[in-house]
Amino acid sequence: MGLRFDLLLFTIALLSVPVLSDLILSRVDRRIDLTSQVVRTTSTLKVENAGSDLVSEVLLAFPDSQAKHLAYLSASSTEGKGKAKGSAVSFPVEIVHPKGMPPALTFYSVSLPKGLGKGDSLTLDVLVVFKGALQPFPEKITQADIQLVVFYETAYYLSPYAVKVQSLSVKLPDARIESFTKIENTKIHGSEIKYGPYENLPPFSYSPIVVHFEANQPFAIAQELVREIEISHWGNVQVTEHYNLVHGGAQSKGEFSRLDFQARPHVRGASAIRHLVAKLPPRVHSIYYRDEIGNISTSNLWGDHKKTEMVIEPRYPMFGGWRTAFTIGYSLPLQDFLFQSDGKRYVNISFGSPVNEVVIDTLIVKVVLPEGSADISVSAPFPVKQGQETKFSHLDLVGRPVVVLEKTNVVPEHNQHFQVYYKFSSLSMLTEPLMLISGFFFLFVTCIVYMHADLSISKSSPSYLAKLQWDEVQAAVQQVRNIINRCLMIHDKLEASLRDLSRTGDVQACKSARKAFDGLLKDLSKDLKPLLASLQTSPQAAQILPKVEELVGKERDLQERMMAKHSTVVDSYEKKSSGREIENRVALQQQKITALRQEVDDLLDLIDEI
Amino acid sequence: MQRVPSYISRSVAGSYDNEAVAIFALIFTFYLYIKTLNTGSLFYATLNAIAYFYMVCSWGGYTFIINLIPMHVLLCIVTGRYSSRLYIAYAPLVVLGTLLASLVPVVGFNAVMTSEHFASFLVFIIIHVVALVYYIKGILSPKMFKVAVTFVVSIGVVVCGAVLAVLIALVASSPTKGWSGRSLSLLDPTYASKYIPIIASVSEHQPPTWPSYFMDINVLAFLVPAGIIACFSPLSDASSFVILYIVTSVYFSGVMVRLMLVLAPAACIMSGIALSAAFDVFTRSIKFQLPGATENSERDAGETSSNSVVAQNDVAKTEKNEDAVKERPSKKNRKKEKEKENVEKPSVKSQIKKKLLILPLEASIIAIFLLVLLGAFYVVHCVWAAAEAYSAPSIVLTSHSHDGLHVFDDFREAYAWLSHNTEVDDKVASWWDYGYQTTAMANRTVIVDNNTWNNTHIATVGTAMSSPEKAAWEIFNSLDVKYVLVVFGGLVGYPSDDINKFLWMVRIGGGVFPHIKEPDYLRDGQYRIDSQATPTMLNCLMYKLSYYRFVETDGKAFDRVRRTEIGKKYFKLTHFEEVFTTHHWMVRIYKLKPPKNRIRGRAKKSKSKASSTTGTKRIGTKKKNPWH
Question: Could you say which residues form the signal peptide (chain A) (predicted)?
Answer without folding.
Answer: 1-21
